[in-house]
Design brief:
The complex is a heterodimer of chains A (229) and B (207). Chain A is α+β, with helices and mostly antiparallel strands. Chain A has 10 helices and 4 strands. Chain B has a 4-stranded antiparallel beta sheet, with helices on one face. In chain B, helix 4 packs parallel to helix 8 (172-185) and helix 6 packs across helix 7 (112-120). Classes of the chains: A alpha+beta (229), B alpha+beta (207). At the A-B interface, helix 8, helix 9, strand 1, strand 2 and strand 3 of A face helix 2, helix 6, helix 7, strand 1 and strand 2 of B.
Amino acid sequence: MKAVFLTLIFAFAVSILSSPVVLAQAEQDTPEAVAKAFVAATQTADWAKAASFMHPDSLAQFKKLFEPLFANEKSAKLVGELFGVKSRAEFDQSNGAQIFEKFMSGITGLIPGFDKLMSKASFDIIGQISETPELVHLLYRTRAPLDDMQSKDAPDRFKNVTFSKLEVMTLKRHENTWRLALSGEVEAMTQMFANISALAAAAPAAESNVAPRKAPSRPAKARKPVRKP
Amino acid sequence: MKKTFLKSILILAALAAATGAGFAQAAQETPESVAKAYFAAMQAVDWAKCASLMHPDALASMKRTFATVISADKTGDAAKTIFKLKSAAEYSQLSEAAVFERLMDFITSVAPDMKTALASSTNTILGRVDESPDLAHIVFRSRTKVASEEVNEVDLISFKKQDSTWRALLTSDMEDMLNRFAEEMTPPSKEDEKGAPGGAGRPPRKP
């Protein structure tokens, strides 16, 4: 009886371990693997999947980033048109992953040829640096031929032009795996969005009869300064 | 004979001292140590020092970028205002380091906030990644105070071997800023006047 029970337990364990979900997760357990999976998802414009590789804190932060833009109806309308969120209520009901997905779909739809560009981009990890056991920075180089970027009046503008850039991607430990953190640049955009919202709220009332719902949470300030040379 | 011998000894000693100094420099100058010196020069807004720690390739590339701006500017204002020259023709005679210094002086004069931000910034080196024997990348955490807010981000700066030492390449932020600045300074071409589509620039960075 005991032997049968042990065999069953063993069989169950093997079936769990060999299930695609567990295998997929095991493969993604290193920062490099998670980064590669994230990039692969962005290349197929699978933003829901891309969001699944982001750290929950980053997704929450991403949503927070747009909060100032939904602080008043005028800017909410503008932003809503951009990425398909019709109202403040819809924004409030969406989670960070959904906001990310909507925003990225909206942005890619706005740039002709962006999807092709993403699909042709290469992503090479050069190395990694652990800042703490919970925080890793990956150094990678991305290259993308810009030939598919469309310019209506100057079709050859990007012909044979290749974009190449060295970047840092930060991953934070999350449970038994790693998830992407937002870059400082994105964080700095919060202020920019607060400024846009403040400008929209301050626009002449004649343009709209809708009064601002709420004042922006932060005062308008200058953009982040230029970084080191 | 004795005199010749002493002279030879002196020459030898001088050569040894010079080589010794060379070795000492090579031993001291790692990408990390050059990065630290570079960050300190930035904090002090000492552009001449920064230029001395930059790779000649980076300085040459910057000079080329602005040569295009200078030659496209028929009024000659850019040469006078940015580079303090009497005419655009003098630009080619400026050293590459001088181009960098004058350009950065101009930028900090029109954006004084940048000086304050640089002076209050701190850069902590997190580590180094060697891409090849001649190319190393330093990853660092930068904290910059802008008004009452702190911008905290991880960035990188690349160093290329030059003789026995390492010299900095332009950071991507700086390259972006200079290219944007150069674009703004360049008079629009006929093609641009017809209207290029929005968003046809570089792809966005990581989220």
